[in-house]
Design a protein that fits this description.
six-stranded parallel sheet; alpha/beta; 22 helices; 56% helix
């Protein structure tokens, strides 16, 4: 049994995933099998309609499947924002047709949530190996300036034609590769949470994501060239990440601190040259720098950690709340920050106990982390080979802002990561000084 077949058995919503070369002609049969007697409506943007939506429409028509007029977003800088969701939702409310999402991240998220809110399932035709959300439970949509994950089921069926996907713009493939690479430090974050008793590793989800991960990331140059041999395992790895999120109903198996950086920059409405940088590129930069932070952790003498000193520097919640209010005073997501930060706040007594556990288990934890992680130099090399950015300035993030983001991102989600370990051991400033020693070392609040 293949990894995909095993993952499908654990999936709650997705019944079928077809991956292959030149298989778009299977769409009518797949649609009829999953949605017998139903009408279809193609949902795409201008680019994905040309890449696969027009052909999908013709295949459905040739098989006498009734269709509504395709819904094609024409905005040049379309992203998963609530106003676009409402546009699609209003369209779907006028029909009982089953949406066929032809696209990648934005189209899939908008269709996923709109389908759920209008009481139906949907089918997805993947057009790029650009992200891991195809088979994921939940949709990431920006609402009132806050990037939120809305509850909604994954597609009932997914068709991934490798011939279409490998011809996608190389930057989309690079983005997906970087998003998949993020599963390595995300796994390390889950190891820390598990070993410290914060959030146990769920074995099925861990296996779905991690078992073949390093193999899926083994051919960055081939992925950049669009070879079938490199694109196929990359697509499979991205799909598996989504299945793990279906199984657990959370994004924990597939994201950690690196995604908190991306969410932070989204919520700060970050753009570069008038556009939002690709999700995978933001995650990739964060993955590279978090890999460097993990190197600082692995080199640190944790068994000599002064727990009393750490506890003496730990402040009560009211003080932390005041600091957070100052740090995020100029944002429109302060309430989210305060709720998330308070949810993972612990007392000094709880901190002392956690750090005792950390010290006593450090040899085992260090061994697990060392097996999980890749050196930051290797992360950088592979990202360069696939064509993903390795310098934050490439996506419009200065070195100072990147350093600030380590502290800001730590407040953003209640998920336990290396950022929390760095703060609770009072090592964050020390480690960042080592990483950014050639740049400004004072954290500033902007």
């Amino acid at each position: 049994m293949t990894k995909i077949e095993q993952a499908l058995k654990s999936a709650h919503e997705t019944r079928v995933l077809q991956i292959g070369v030149n298989i778009l002609n299977r769409l009518p049969g797949l649609f009829t099998e999953q949605f017998p007697g139903k009408k279809a409506i193609i949902v795409a943007d201008s680019n994905t309609y040309e890449a696969a939506g027009k052909a999908a429409t013709e295949y459905l028509s040739s098989s006498c499947i009734t269709q509504e007029k395709p819904f094609v977003f024409t905005e040049p800088n379309l992203f998963a924002e609530y106003k676009y969701l409402e546009q699609l939702e209003n369209c779907l409310m006028q029909t009982d047709a089953i949406p066929v999402a032809v696209g990648s991240g934005t189209i899939n998220d908008l269709t996923k949530l709109a389908a759920y809110r209008t009481g139906r399932q949907y089918l997805c035709v993947a057009t790029a190996a650009s992200m891991d959300g195809y088979t994921a439970f939940g949709a990431s949509v920006t609402y009132r300036g806050d990037k939120q994950t809305f509850t909604c089921p994954a597609p009932q069926a997914v068709l991934a034609d490798i011939e279409i996907i490998r011809r996608a713009p190389p930057e989309l493939t690079a983005s997906g590769y970087a998003d998949l690479f993020a599963k390595i430090p995300a796994g390390a974050d889950w190891i820390l949470a598990d070993e410290l008793g914060v959030e146990p590793i769920e074995p099925t989800a861990w296996s779905i994501v991690q078992d073949g991960l390093h193999e899926a990331l083994a051919h960055p140059a081939g992925a950049r060239k669009g070879t079938v041999e490199a694109i196929t395992p990359l697509v499979e790895g991205l799909m598996l990440g989504g299945f793990a999120m279906q199984w657990t109903r959370t994004s924990r198996p597939a994201s950690g601190a690196e995604h908190q950086f991306s969410h932070l920059w989204d919520m700060e409405h970050h753009t570069h040259n008038g556009k939002m940088p690709a999700h995978g590129f933001k995650v990739g930069i964060a993955t590279l720098y978090l890999s460097a932070l993990y190197e600082q952790l692995l080199q640190h003498p944790i068994q000599q950690l002064d727990i009393k000193s750490c506890c003496a520097q730990w402040t009560e919640w009211k003080q932390q709340e005041t600091r957070a209010k100052k740090m995020f005073a100029d944002t429109d997501f302060l309430t989210t920050v305060l709720n998330e930060a308070q949810a993972k706040y612990i007392t000094k007594d709880e901190l002392a106990q956690q750090l005792k556990t950390f010290k006593s288990k450090w040899p085992v934890i260090r061994e697990h982390l060392s097996r999980q992680l890749l050196p930051s130099a290797e992360v950088k090399r592979r990202l360069q080979l696939v064509g993903a950015p390795v310098e934050p300035e490439t996506i419009g993030i200065s070195q100072i802002r990147l350093r600030n983001s380590f502290l800001r991102a730590q407040h953003l989600r209640r998920r336990f990561t290396i950022l929390d370990v760095a703060v609770r051991t009072s090592c964050l400033d020390l480690w960042l000084n080592q990483m950014f020693r050639k740049h400004e070392t004072d954290i500033c609040y902007h």
